[in-house]
Amino acid sequence: MTELRHRAGKDTDPTLQQQPSEDKGSDSELKGEKDGSSDSEAKVDSGVPEVPVPADTPVVLNKAVSGLSSRWKNWWIRGVVTLAMISFFFLIIYLGPMVLMMIVLIVQIKCFEEIISIGYNVYHSYHLPWFRTLSWYFLLCVNYFFYGETVTDYFFTLVQREEPLRILSKYHRFISFAFYLTGFCMFVLSLVKKHYRLQFYMFGWTHVTLLIVVTQSHLIIHNLFEGMIWFIVPISCVICNDIMSYMFGFFFGRTPLIKLSPKKTWEGFIGGLFSTIVFGIMFSYLLAGYRYFVCPVEFNNDSNRFQVDCEPSELFQLQDYILPNILQSFTGWTTVRLYPFQIHSIALSSFASILGPFGGFFASGFKRAFKIKDFANTIPGHGGIMDRFDCQYLMATFVNVYIASFIRGPNPTKVIQQLLALRMDQQLHIFNSLKTHLTEKGLLPALEGAAA
């Protein structure tokens, strides 16, 4: 994106004209175009204007910490706001899965708006036709597709019960493609001769944003349906790593970690790693004992409400584990009693500490490319919503892949739902095939004898 070329003409923002050109060789390239562009239109300026972001700290907080140095002032502001956000996080967990899903949708929309606004502010002088309208239209299309898939998958009985929903479910992918195709045609019709290249840049900008934000936020909801613990623990691990890395870096940081984030240090990185692993093990032990957190989120068709009630799987039942000899000599314990999920939490917290921060580094590189400090000024001391969720989206993808690879097995309920959607002759064929298979395995006579 840093290599986007800006055409300088009558409509060019004056702030762009003052910046030195870093790509003089592209002048001849533009002059050779066959669209008859004038010389003034052929001039380029590869400098990227800084996107103005107003101060994000409220006056009240500024007055409260006015006597402190800038270093400690930022520390206290971030601390107070972090405690407020953590309190809000526990509140929405208490309110249940439906509220959590709504919050995920709101966060997704806000993150999308912040990234799209950067593109709009940087290239506002070009007055690209329909850019914002098409961006939000594509957001609507993608959300319609993903949430439609989720409704069909998790609320199958409800969908089959209502005729309009059954029709929408049956032709869902065709309708989604028709919506997207409409937006695609609108984009083609909006192309303007002197802005071809820039319009295609922004078309790609929108789609990459959709891939990063919408697709991964949809995975968060899928993780939530597997059990709230798969939603809460990964998010909490990222939050813990962010806080502890900041604390260790603030007090002990000396060695720079990566040039993209000059304030990140190896001391903060290592301190955050060990702190997050310990936190993940302890927090998982706390949550694994409650059905509210470990049971899959299911929709009760009788009451038309979400329910979280089940017999916990082996993953959430205490088991004895023999410690390695090294740990036995160090702790004096031979065995420990843990939930199997706590073993998985080590993988989750390790990813949150080692690879999760690369989501933040990616966001830092993006902001440096456009010379901005934060994506927005929504959260005092923290920037925009995207500044807080850059690591969360990467974490959500890992959790979804981890569940699919190591945790999730075939779901008999969903198989039965799919069978009931078939025609009667198809159901009878499957029944006869299954009966023959069970008879050959010697299971059917035993079942019949037990029933007798």
Written overview of the protein:
The chain is mainly α and 452 residues long. Helix content is 67%, strand content 6%. The chain contains 21 helices and eight strands. The strands form four sheets. Strands 1-2 form a two-stranded antiparallel ribbon. Strands 3-4 form a two-stranded antiparallel sheet. The longest helix is centred in the middle third of the chain and has 30 residues, at 196-225.
Overall mean pLDDT score?
79
Through-space gap between termini:
72 Å
The geometry reads as flat
Order of strands side by side in the largest beta sheet?
1-2
Quote the beta fraction.
5-15%
β-strand number: 8
Structural class: mainly alpha
Largest sheet: 2 strands, antiparallel
As a whole number of angstroms, the C-alpha radius of gyration is: 27 Å
Count, helices: 21
Low-pLDDT windows of residues? 1-48, 51-55, 448-452
Order of helices and strands: EHHHEHHHHHHHHHEEHHEEEHEHHHHHH
Helix content: 55-70%
Q: Which terms would index this structure?
A:
452 residues; mainly alpha; two-stranded antiparallel ribbon; two-stranded antiparallel sheet; 21 helices; disordered C terminus
Give a concise summary.
By secondary structure, the chain is mainly alpha-helical. 67% of the residues lie in helices and 6% in strands.
Write the SSE topology.
Blueprint (H helix, E strand, L loop, with lengths): L5 E2 L6 H4 L8 H6 L7 H4 L1 E2 L13 H6 L5 H26 L1 H26 L8 H24 L1 H6 L1 H8 L1 H19 L5 H30 L3 H24 L3 E3 L2 E5 H23 L2 H4 L3 E3 L4 E3 L11 E4 L2 H7 L3 E4 L1 H15 L2 H13 L15 H23 L4 H9 L3 H17 L3 H8 L1
Antiparallel strand pairs: 1-2, 3-4, 5-6, 7-8
Helix pairs in contact: 6-7, 6-11, 7-10, 7-11, 11-12, 11-18, 12-13, 12-16, 12-18, 13-16, 17-18
